[in-house]
Amino acid sequence: MKTINKLVLALFFFGTLLVKADDEIPPVPTGPSTGTGGVGPGGPASPIDMYVYLLSIVAVAFIMYYTKKLKSQKA
Question: Alpha carbon of 1 to those of 26, 57, 62: distances in Å?
């Protein structure tokens, strides 16, 4: 039961980080001296946003793998 509690706590923690990650993007500066660079027309540079779902799935897979590995070592 302890392993399940740790897994749920870890998923909750990382889920909270996913939700909070969107709040901390600074506002896009405006004005003639602030070029947009290679990001696009005024979009903030956050390339990790494209892979959030994939990274979440990989993280859960790693948690399950290492939990199973730890459990088999204890047995």
Answer: 41, 23, 19
Amino acid 35 reads G
The structure tokens listed for 8 are 């749920």
Residue-wise pLDDT for 44-59, tens only, equals 556 666 778 888 899 9
d(CA 43, CA 65): 37
Cβ-based neighbours of 42, under 8 Å, separated by 6 or more: 28, 30, 36
Q: What share of the chain is helix, strand, coil (3-state, %, to 5)?
A: 65, 0, 35
Q: What are phi and psi of 47, to 5 degrees?
A: -70, -15
